[in-house]
Amino acid sequence: MTRRNFLVTGVAGITTTLTGSVLATARAPRELRLGLSSPATSADPHYQAVSANVSLSQHIFDALVHVDAAGRYVPGLATSWRATDAYTWEIKLRPGVRFHDGSLLTMEDVLHSLRRPGTIIDSPGPFTTFSKQFVRLQPLDDSTLEIKTREPYGGLPGDLSSLFIVSKKASERAQPADFDAGRAAVGTGPFKLRRFTKGESVRLERHDAYWGGRPDWEAVTLTYLTDDKQRTAALLSDEVDAIEAVPSADTAKLREQRGLSLIQRTSWRTIFFHLEQFTDRSPWIFDANGQPMTTSPLKDRRVRRALSLAIDREAVVKGIMGGQALPAAQLVAPGIVGYNETLKPDPYDPAQARKLLADAGFPNGFSLTLHAPNNRYINDEKIAGAVAHFWGGVGVRTKIETFPAADYFARARRGEFSVAMLGYGSMGADFALRALLGTPDSNKGWGTWNWAKYTNSRLDATIHAALQSTDPSKRQLLAAAAMDMAMHDHAVLPLHHQLATWCMRKGISYAGRVDEFTFAHHFKIA
User: Fold this and answer.
1) In Å, how far are 12, 49, 63, 193, 380 from 409, measured between CA atoms?
2) pLDDT tens per residue across span 118-132
């Protein structure tokens, strides 16, 4: 049996068996219960820049710039923004916006919020990536803010979409625990925080004075169901009204269930592998005789390319993902700024992979450990097992170790792994490359997710040029060129772009989002 057939036919063994029927229990028409796949680690909107936290923050707080379902920038707490010169942006604030406590949004709240990420100590995922470009925040009047950047910078609207505005009065001396308890979680968003139970659930109450219009729901419960089977079961047993990240093995059967509707959208999230290229000695890599190596093979581009050619991406997409993904050749999905049309996924070519390993001095291969989360991405643990299987086929004996997301990300950020799975989504190739492959520099906010400590001065310069451009066509060309450079160096190994899938009860509608976020205020009563 070929490896491709092994994976495709093996899906039968991992498919979730769906039993029972959708219950028709009557629900209060103004209460929404959502089953989410990944728990928020904090209700502090400036503590950790991971998608689960950002998703929660979008319910309680607002940013100056919003992103619509298609990934386009639209007005938020700012009604407009424009570059007045290469170093200067002018931001107009929305008038009459009220916080949850009834107080009016002021310029002081905005200034405090844009500066606050830089005051957070020991953040496991700092938001300073989005604020490091600011060199001066200058109010021109009560509703006009001028932002000076350290260099020409066209990416400011994207950064402003990631920085949430908090009440200065409520948060000035607050710690993350004060947000979790609700004391400091005073925002202008569509819902008020009523209860945050870390790792379990969040209870929200409608903010009737929300400037964007009252949501359909008076109350919302976000329940964190990290296990795929548990999420599906909760929907079928009427414990929740809708779920995100529908397991690929369940998609077809849920589509056939009476009383349910299912929606899909190509996601901006790319699943890929970081390859640590900073240290010579890795505790996770050994030679063919099981001895530690004095020079890491991952530093050799031929080895990195061999590992890529050894992966049958089509088999992973069909067999593990059930067709609910697209093979990836780069770190952003089609339609995203900087997407490079010329890049194609590496073909499955184990013979060429073995030749490259031999050319690099590893005719008998070597051994390594691949690390991955087991409750963060769709089929993450199964994907890791499939990749280990492929690498073993070309002589790279691969062990996998997986951890719950909270533990995994903390260890990965400390640089404890040699090969590590990550899923990342971004509004632009230059943004993604800045965070994932830019030479780490805390002063600039670069490399905040560069677990491999990869560095390439030519790549840095091209990313920098793309970020400086306020001309959309020029930025597209430069960002695409930067992506081409990184992918030809096999700086990371892209695997696939996820398809985002939601399933909900009839009578509820949701427009799927390219960023995969699940926002209660965007669910509508049909």
Assistant:
1) 31, 12, 25, 26, 14
2) 999 888 888 998 998
